[in-house]
Amino acid sequence: MNFKKLAFIAFSSFVLFSCSKEDETITTTTEISTPVSAFDEFNPDAVTISFDGDQITIETNGQPNHTSPYWEETHPLHIDPVVALAQTPGRIGNRSLTVTVSAAPEIASSSTATGLGPIGISVTGVPIFNDTEGDNRPIEEQIVETFDYAGAHNGPSGYHYHIESYDVPENNTVLSHNDEKLVGIMADGFLIYGRKCNSTGNYPTDLDVSGAHTSSTQHSDGKEFYHYHIINEFYLGSIIALFAVDLQGTPNSIL
Questions:
Q1: Residues 6 or more apart whose Cβ sits within 8 Å of residue 232
Q2: What is the dihedral angle through the alpha carbons of 180, 181, 184, 185, rounded to the nearest 10 degrees?
Q3: What strands lie across the sheet with 97-102, from one edge to the other?
Q4: Exposure string for 22-36, b = 16+ CB within 10 A, e = fewer
């Protein structure tokens, strides 16, 4: 990990956010600081993390550290398609994406719907997209057929993830599949983990409508903080979207 400026980020006091299931939110107590050790999970060949006071900047070249049929055929990480029945045009290439988030993100007074384009940065350095494609239409079966085993395909803005990685022998990534691994960080500064929770070892039952709750994780040394999980719900019968809901914090632009 390339730390340009390392600063200690202490756990902050609790913030109370209250509402009801009926209006699609939930009462939760949130510890608002992000555990620094989570950033050790990010691919150092693609991602640079910088700490500056109460801000964290994540920069990535968008190139994953795993195999894919979307690499150029001459690239050492190129493989033949495993699950993809078709491929979108283009290959994995160098790109530049940057987002700056608060080291102590807060739940906003209202949630924010995600749009097309990057909504988070994964641990591999590849951007996370939501469950829509093209002109804001939901992912359809024909689109699913273009995803590699990592749950990604290429688009006009480059290689990006939409869905949870597949459970196949070729999956040599650190990406989550039905587990508790860190997936990445969302544009509002909250971390996102796999479907299971480290604090219980199973699927969390107290998630709000955005798949988030307050608990400890493998990165927080027993302290509790607010974070997302991949929601344990199948999409189109066989896949699970990484993030198909609203952001509960204030989103920052990923440029």
A1: 195, 203, 240
A2: 40
A3: 2-3, 47-52, 55-60, 97-102
A4: eeebbebebbbbbbb
- What backbone torsions phi and psi does residue 21 show, to the nearest 5 degrees? -65, -35
Per residue in 71-108, pLDDT (tens digit) is 999 999 999 999 989 999 999 999 999 999 999 999 99
Instruction: Tell me the residue length of the chain.
Output: 255
Give residue for tokens 């609203």: 246
Cα–Cα distance, 247 to 209 (Å, whole number): 10
Domain boundaries, the chain: 1-255
Strands 120-122 and 127-128: antiparallel
Residue 115: alpha-carbon gap to chain centroid: 15
Whether residue 22 is predicted with pLDDT greater than 80 in this model: the reply is: no
- Angle at the Cα of 236 from the Cα atoms of 233 and 237, rounded to 5 degrees: 65
Q: Which helix (H) or strand (E) holds 141?
A: helix 141-144
Are 161 and 97 within 8 A, CB to CB?
no
pTM: 0.88
Q: Helix (H, G, I), strand (E, B), or coil: what is residue 38?
A: helix
26: CB partners within 8 A, 6+ apart: 19, 20, 206, 208, 209
Q: Could you tell me which of 211, 241, 238 has the C-alpha nearest to residue 226? A: 211
